[in-house]
Amino acid sequence: MLNQQTLEKLYAMKLDAMADAFKEQIQQPDMNELAFEERFSLLVDRLWTWKEERRMNRLLKGAKLKINGCVEDIDYQAPRGIDKSVIFRLAGCDWIRSAQNIIITGPTGVGKTYLACSLANRACRMGLSAFYIRIPKLFQELGIARADGSYPKIMKKLAKAKVLILDDFGLSPMTAPERRELLEVVEDRHAFCSTIVATQLPIESWHENIRDPTIADAILDRLIHNAHKINLKGESMRKLLGRGKNDTETTD
């Protein structure tokens, strides 16, 4: 009866993992051979693991990553200019803790989005928040937000993500409102959070795309000066996969 009451209280306090672990202990006679401290430690470990898994799943769901990529599945065999030692260091997430950025450039299909999402996935597994959005959709949502009054809310969301992926940067020349919006986004995050930019556009062409020297200088200063630059090259992964290449990695 006492055990049943204990279980009911644990479930009522939403300590489901601890309750399940306690129930398992009751059903295992050899557990009686362990000291109280050892049994209690096992219960706490189960609860800790359960909460960490829930947190990770919540972060991954909130990140809205386009691709469910993992750094462990990155293909280093295809000649794309990916340095395994660099990816290994980035997987430690110290760059995020230091509020540094990553710029991933390269032609279409070489895996820019996959790499960006893999690094964000790693951040989530390390307990850090992330959020993915394509630049065209970003401008669209910010325009709607200004009209319906939700602009402060969405800007706060973008500012709080420890890792923000801005994908498909530079697909078309920016308009005046778009370059101002981008500056506001990167300004809010500068020196506090990390941004990953994935683009086909070489960095030296960003000024031309932004089309305002002053704003372009401000944006580049906040994104580039402390950024890890990864320039992918080579043949499209789509073509390689189309030829029957056996690989765990998908394309961007």
Summarize it:
With 252 residues, this protein is an alpha/beta fold. The chain is 54% helix and 11% strand. It folds into two domains: 2-61, no CATH class; 64-242, 3-Layer(aba) Sandwich (Rossmann fold).
Written account of the structure:
This protein is of the alpha/beta class. It has two domains: 2-61, no CATH class; 64-242, 3-Layer(aba) Sandwich (Rossmann fold), CATH 3.40.50. 54% of the residues lie in helices and 11% in strands. It contains twelve helices and five strands. The protein has a five-stranded parallel sheet with strand order 2-3-4-1-5. Helix 9 (176-189) links the parallel strand 3 (163-169) and strand 4. The longest helix has 28 residues, at 36-63. The chain is elongated and about 75 Å long. The chain starts with a helix and ends in a 10-residue tail after the last helix. The model has no long low-confidence stretch (mean pLDDT 91).
List keywords for this structure.
elongated; 252 residues; 2 domains; alpha/beta; 5 strands; five-stranded parallel beta sheet; Rossmann fold; 11% strand; 12 helices
Q: What class would the helix/strand composition place it in?
A: alpha/beta
Number of helices: 12
Class of the largest domain, according to the CATH hierarchy? Alpha Beta
- The CATH H-level superfamily of the largest domain is P-loop containing nucleotide triphosphate hydrolases
Strand order of the largest sheet: 2-3-4-1-5
Order of helices and strands, N to C? HHHHHEHEHHEHEHHEH
SSE inventory with pairings:
Elements: H1 2-12, H2 16-26, H3 36-63, H4 84-90, H5 94-97, E1 101-105, H6 112-125, E2 130-134, H7 135-148, H8 151-160, E3 163-169, H9 176-189, E4 194-199, H10 206-210, H11 213-224, E5 227-231, H12 237-242
Parallel strand pairs: 1-4, 1-5, 2-3, 3-4
Helix pairs in contact: 1-2, 2-3, 3-6, 7-8, 8-9, 9-11
